[in-house]
Amino acid sequence: MIKVGDQLPAVTLMEYHEVEGEGCSMGPNPVDVIAASTGKTIALFALPGAFTPTCSAKHVPGYVESQPAFKAAGVDEIWCVSVNDAFVMGAWARDQKTGEKVRMLADGDAAFTKATGLTLDLTGKGLGLRSNRYSMLVKDGRVVSLNIEGPGKFEVSDAATMLAQVAA
């Protein structure tokens, strides 16, 4: 399992851009995790799935609302990672009004999730292999803090906890 001090996995996530800009085509675009995190401070949070109750009602909105405070504290980007495809993450971004505040990154084949060792098997619930709920502060591609939720919990991966760690 990934731990504080480790480098983020060298995998590719996917991102759907609603509006074409700066040479990015619409539709799924690859995001090389290493290249995208180099030289940046990133508040990354992961969750079991798009459009799920806790994720939509609490997890994503907390980071969207707190984005100005994260930026003021020196965070360059906020990433939301989920084992969903880029089209679902794009639709969820529209629904959650993430705009330029939170990058909604799809881990469609769970490569990132498997590489971190933070998988959650929800096969019995019809959801298959998903990501555990967690957050991490990443600086220049390395994990600085890691907050892993217990089963069914939402206590340590929220925006307020991460913001306190950024400010510390």
Describe the structure in your own words.
With 168 residues, the protein is of the alpha+beta class. It has one domain: Glutaredoxin (3-Layer(aba) Sandwich), CATH 3.40.30. Helix content is 30%, strand content 30%. It has five helices and nine strands, in the order ββαβαβαβαββββα. Strands 2-1-5-4-3-8-9 form a seven-stranded mixed beta sheet.
Got a strand count? 9
SSE-based structural type: alpha+beta
Question: What is the CA-CA span between the terminal residues?
Answer: 24 Å
Which H/E pattern describes the elements?
Answer: EEHEHEHEHEEEEH
Spatial arrangement of strands, main beta sheet: 2-1-5-4-3-8-9
Q: What helical percentage do the residues reach?
A: 25-40%
What does the largest sheet look like?
A: 7 strands, mixed
Enumerate how many helices there are, as a single number. Answer: 5
Please name the CATH architecture.
3-Layer(aba) Sandwich
- The coarse overall form would be globular
* Uncertain stretches: none
Tell me the name of the CATH homologous superfamily.
Answer: Glutaredoxin
β-strand percent reads 25-35%
Fold-level CATH name: Glutaredoxin
Assign the CATH class.
Alpha Beta
Q: Please, what is the average pLDDT? A: 92
- The Rg value, from CA coordinates, equals 15 Å
Tell me the domain tally. 1
